[in-house]
Amino acid sequence: MTTFPTLPQAAAALDGEVRGGAILCPGPGHSPTDRSLSVKPDGCDAEGFVVHSFAGDDWKQCRELVRSKLGLAERSEKTSNQNGKARGWTTLAEYVYRDAQGAPYLKVRKCLERTAISNIPSPIGMGKPGSRVSHPVRRFPIAFRSCSPLP
Question: Which of 66, 68, 83, 82 is nearest to 24 (CA)?
Answer without folding.
Answer: 66
